[in-house]
Amino acid sequence: MREGIEIRRARPGEEEVLTALVLRSKASNGYDEAFMAACVAELTIPAEAISDGEVFVAGDETPLGMYRLIAKGELGHVEDMFVDPQAKRSGVGRALWAHMEARARAFGCFRLGLDADPFAVAFYQAMGMKIVGESPSGSIPGRMLPRMEKVL
Length: 152
Known about the structure:
Number of strands: 7
CATH superfamily: Gcn5-related N-acetyltransferase (GNAT)
CATH architecture: 3-Layer(aba) Sandwich
Radius of gyration: 15 Å
Structural class: alpha+beta
Low-confidence stretches: none
């Protein structure tokens, strides 16, 4: 893992820079412009998510990655988990994941769940997630995504 990766709460006003990071990360998987245009609304980081306090960022001034956790009872839902394409394979994703798991446990979650981009399945499996089914895409009608979960 990369040394010295700072993880902090997202700051008010960072929604645009974080949304841009998310879109760069998603596009780096080779999706075309039409696909990306269909995903913009779903991938936009809302200001309310930041003000609610469960959006975390790797990197101080320049965000290298981010996650958003929604904790409800024993299940924590990973709403967003993205790493800037230039920071992939540098330990940023693993650092974010470890931080997110600790947050989920602090909330009393016993399980984590997420709907994975097919290109991210290998990363999530390396983090201990298992495919448990499918979920419909929130952006592309008829597209199914791997549903993954992990017992903490």
